Model the fold of this input.
Amino acid sequence: MKQIFYFILLASMFMGCSKEPLLMFKELPNTYLNESDYGKLPNFEHEKYDEVLKSFVSNCQATKAQEIYGSLCLDANKTTNAKEFIQNNFTPYRIYGEDSLLTAYYEPELHGSLTKSKKYQYPIYKTPKDLIAVDLKSIYPTLKNYRLRGRIEGSKLVPYYTRLELAQKEIDSEVICYCDSKIELFFLEVQGSGRVALENGDTLYVGYDNQNGHNYKSIGKYLINMNEISKENISLQSIKEWFALNPTRVDEVLNHNPSLVFFKERENPASGSLGLELTPLRSVAVDNNYIPLGSMLYLSSSSENEVYEKVVFAQDTGGAIKGSVRADMFLGFGKNAGKIAGELKSELALWIFMPKTIKEKKIE
Done:
């Protein structure tokens, strides 16, 4: 089995940055690490180890996690001491980067119908039939984490339609259902998955399936730059309040983000990019250009109302999640989860647990 976690020492130009050598993934050369120990993980001694082990076993259902941890996935099912299993088999490495940020997301609930009406008029689309997604790794292996999206126009592949353009034309796509708020639909896209309470009493679970290929642009930053909301007061709640006070400008602000997400129906509640059901306070979205999906991590962050110091698992991605010391923590379902997720923005320290069987490679 291919091992994706071999290390090489960072080139000498970076050696002055730390007393200890910085390390990086061979296959992810932008991810810089320092070997650490469990005593440096804030509050690790108070972690709920049995709960962590249960999450590790669940995480190992994903092929990408199995590629990372190999036989440890099998060993986890046999262990009788969760704490010893973690400390005896893994070494924590501190992840370094220019910026650090912890945010959170949740599973929103929309209200909708299977038929379009005056009340339910905003469609939740499946992936359009004319959307072309090209996996670049078969041509350019170094671009294995990127996809090219577009549409055929004549004999050329051109960029797919923006959010604004799609609002002005018929989309060649099936509609899952219709909801009663374009604002809530927008935030469903941001969260990546959610549930729709239908007027007939049923519930639909929907999740990310594809995207139109345009980069995500933050409407929060747009409102800050337009001096509509101060940087200190920006949150999901303050944005919704601003929309309520400025209904004629909703389209202007939403269309600032050209990215549009397409969905698929799911049988279960929120699941991430690994296809696993997300666990509140244990699942995080990361930038998989820096952190491989399936990785076991430790995060430390504090906000005005809460301290987060815990083991988490990289099980999801997101268009706004960029950088190595960056995590978006899943908080679950409900209004309280939505309130906390809308307000959480705090500095982050992040470690990754590496199997001790993996050897470091030095530059000669």
The domain at 111-266 is CATH 2.40.240.50 (Ribosomal Protein L25; Chain P).
